[in-house]
Design goal:
With 168 residues, this protein is mostly helical. It is 58% helix and 0% strand. It folds into two domains: 55 residues, no CATH class; 95 residues, no CATH class.
């Protein structure tokens, strides 16, 4: 039996139990009972339908249509476009595999790349985003921070911290 059907049946049972109450009620009035039961059914159906419609039209995290978790695609992109960085490939692929194999991770995957200008940090970040999310860098689940652009003034570190936590 699908989980949604079980949920509807549980709601129906709860509705009947609530309306039936204790021994004080000898019978249920059919119009009120039907209205309450219908409202519970409509609410649960609408909730499930709304979620499916929402995920069909916009990016939703648990939906495999939007979140791909394709680490082998990352390795393929890396092999095609980056040369001489095999250690980066191995370390990043291991971190990605470790994160995606968790059924529901408690924390988001955070990777911090350091190096000189032009060394490929953002390039690798794009491969990661393309491999994990259908929308790639445009995904609402991807945040790219560039220190010289996003945090240019040392004295405003506290403001930057507050603004960073207000993203989502």
């Amino acid at each position: 039996m699908p989980a949604f059907t079980k949920l509807v049946l549980q709601l129906a049972i709860v509705t009947i139990v609530i309306l039936g109450g204790a021994n004080e009620v000898s019978s249920l009035e059919p119009i009120t009972t039907g209205a309450a039961f219908g409202a519970a059914m409509f609410g649960s159906l609408y909730s499930a339908w709304n979620y499916k419609l929402k995920c069909a039209l916009q990016e939703c995290c648990p939906d495999p249509k939007w979140v791909t978790h394709n680490v082998s695609h990352f390795e393929s992109l890396f092999d095609q476009h980056v040369f001489g960085q095999h250690i980066v490939k191995d370390v990043v692929a291991k971190a990605l595999r470790s994160h995606v194999k968790k059924e529901s991770p408690k924390k988001a995957l955070v990777l911090s790349f350091h190096g000189w200008t032009g060394s490929g940090k953002n390039y690798v970040a794009q491969f990661i985003a393309q491999s994990l999310f259908r929308e790639g860098m445009k995904s609402k689940f991807v945040n790219l921070f560039i220190s010289t652009v996003d945090f240019p003034i040392d004295e405003k570190v506290d403001i930057y911290k507050v603004r960073k936590f207000q993203l989502h």
